[in-house]
Amino acid sequence: MTIRSARLDDAGFIARIILDSTRGYRPRGWFDVALGWPEAQCLEFIARVATARAVSMWHVSQFLLSEIGGKPVVALCALPAAGAGPSAWGAIEEVGAAIGLTTPELDAIRQRGAYSRACWVQGGEGDWMIEHVATDPAHRGRGLIQALIADALEKGRAAGFARATISFLIGNEPAERAYAKAGFVFAEEKRDPAFEAIIGAPGFRMFARAM
Question: Looking at residue 137, what is its pLDDT?
């Protein structure tokens, strides 16, 4: 297994990772709901966001990935938590304008995506945030995530961060076990009935650990 930073030509794989990770153990995730498009169209849009000029938590430059036999099989993003939300919307606006979405269409995406605000939890301004962790289905259950998380933590330590956080859907037991194995412990959770009605999960749980 080889660990490396993602590149622009990994955009398709990173888009798949983002879509799968936002879904977690449910059939739909944030992009499915906010965009309201078929999966192939969602993946194309996310790949554009991953290579946009606006660098967000979805940009390829924020991702580490592991390869087996030269093929990417698992990835995650690791970056400072500060400013992650505003930069993400900037990337969506940039791509939306590039593909010809109107202002009302972009407003509708924002409104549909607002359901997650009531229960989203992420690291504080001084935290190192790990998100969008996912593995190719053919390579799950092999412990590949542990090595990648360790590399992401080392990257955060080198940047001077003292605490790392990671968030996931409440009820995603495989994710919870994997993060606990990596030394993360429960820090906070938020639940919202409206969120559960849309996604089928009660809300988000955040784990944290010292670097």
Answer: 82
Domain that holds residue 72: 2-210
Q: Which CATH number characterizes residue 137's domain?
A: 3.40.630.30
**Residue pair 198/23 in contact by the 8 Å Cβ criterion:** no
The answer for residues whose C-beta is within 8 angstroms of residue 99's C-beta and 6 or more apart is 45, 48
| DSSP structure class, residue 201 | S
**Encoded amino acid at 28, one letter:** R
Count of the separate structural domains present in the chain: 1
Calpha distance 59→192 (Å, rounded): 29
Summary mean pLDDT of the chain:
95
Buried-state track 150-163, b at ≥16 Cβ within 10 A, e below 16? ebbbebbeeeebeb
pLDDT digits (tens, 9 = 90+) for 123-151: 888 999 999 999 988 777 777 899 999 99
Neighbouring-strand partners of residue 79: 129
